[in-house]
Amino acid sequence: MTLVLRYAARSDRGLVRSNNQDSVYAGPRLLALADGMGGHAAGEVASKVVIAALAPLDDDEPGDDLLGRLREAVSNGNGMLNELVAGDPDLDGMGTTLTAVLFAGSRLGLVHVGDSRAYLLRDGRFAQITHDDTFVQSLIDEGRISEEDAANHPQRSLLLRALTGNDVELTLTVREARAGDRYLLCSDGLSGPVSEETLDEAMRIQDPQTCADRLIELALKGGGPDNVTCIVADVVDVEFGENDPIVGGAAGDGSEQQPPPDSAAARASATTLPRPSRPETPPEQPTRPKRKRLRTFLVLLAVLVLLGVGGYFGYSVVMGQHFVSTNDDDEVAVFQGVRGTVLGIPLHRQVEDSCGDAGEDCERIQITDLRPAYQGTVRNGIVNQGSLADARETIEQLRTEQLLPPCTEENSPQHDAEPAGRSTEPDTPSGTPTGPSSLIGQDDGDRVGSAQDDAKQDAAVGTARPVQEPGVDCRTVG
Fold first, then answer.
1. CATH number of the domain where residue 73 is located
2. Mean pLDDT of the region 91-119
3. Which residues span the membrane (predicted)?
4. Model confidence at 229, in pLDDT bands (50, 70, 90)?
5. How far is CA 355 from CA 213, 235, 359, 370, 378, in A?
6. 114, 174, 237, 397: most buried by Cβ count inside 10 Å?
7. Is residue 262 part of a domain?
8. Angle at the Cα of 122 from the Cα atoms of 128 and 147, rounded to 5 degrees
9. Does the pTM of the predicted model rise above 0.85?
10. At what angle do helices 284-318 and 42-54 cross, to 10 degrees?
């Protein structure tokens, strides 16, 4: 006599959420459900990463140390979250709940953190076997509020523990498995809008797939305020050679209510195996090549998840950068992204010109308005500006410290030379820097000072003032 699992998994994004941040895995040894949090795509990434870390547990005999294997797998997944958050501080706050069962015949290991739940229907009695890691549950435990009050408490979704990449205390237990047991793992998208009494009634439906479909239907009828995911798993007693062994998931088996293709349940059904015809040899033999294919699929899944994570966070890092350079009209401007292209596609875009939001009286800066020593630097891009505010500050420094003086009519070839010995000093061009620039250093400042000394010397000996060239000695105004 052999105890095995017969199971079904369903997931739905609900009627309010725009995406599904729940992830689920159901296999002959592993049942795992994670409810991601963090906004945008971060919650979905967190739940995927943790489920991917646990999925290999389904591929091998768990041995005697069920809790040790669960703890190690969860630690690996949590460590991956830590690395992702370290790479992008904007992801701080990303995390996921987790409720998972590792099945080993007459025993099973259970790991839990967060507010996803596990229930057990045994001998006609339906009961929750996990404890919510929530603020509201702590108030119930302390006798400060009742179960009825908790249903409408404004902070009922506040978690005290979750997988976020930081150290967290897990709840790990070993339970006895009995033939006839039925387990339900679900996210709070089911346990929230559907009462325990209604769950109990639905759990009496004999077929696991039909039961799972009914549970999703109840959550949607309750308003579907959140993603809703569930696994229904029966512990069945199979006499070798007389019954079809369970070697794959029943999720996505062709029933009328299929999970959407982008849902976590669809991904779970893709990672499980179809139910084969009755074998004439022990069930372990035909499952080995399929387990190899399952392992290969899981490796590919993990790679795709990491590539997707890398692409998403790489894009967020790139678009979080700004730099100052020139546009196609040779105007100084602020760009978002990084310089360069990939397959001919630019990795940046102009977000504002050199005036920004300064108003109509602001004069846009042409590249030829800048001192020659700095024109090349700006054309190549002043990088590592970080925020838009940093880039605007650089623009202001260019405007106040690097602009050439305006070109004037008196600096023309026809201007009469001053007689030698005249005591008056020549006019200093308006706007010429009188000291070294904070952007380019002392050497360029010395060059400006030397030019001024040469002009004074020429005037003293009665030579004509040299012609000023726009973009080299002065800038055109107007």
1. 3.60.40.10
2. 94
3. 297-315
4. very high
5. 59, 70, 7, 15, 16
6. 114
7. yes
8. 25
9. no
10. 150
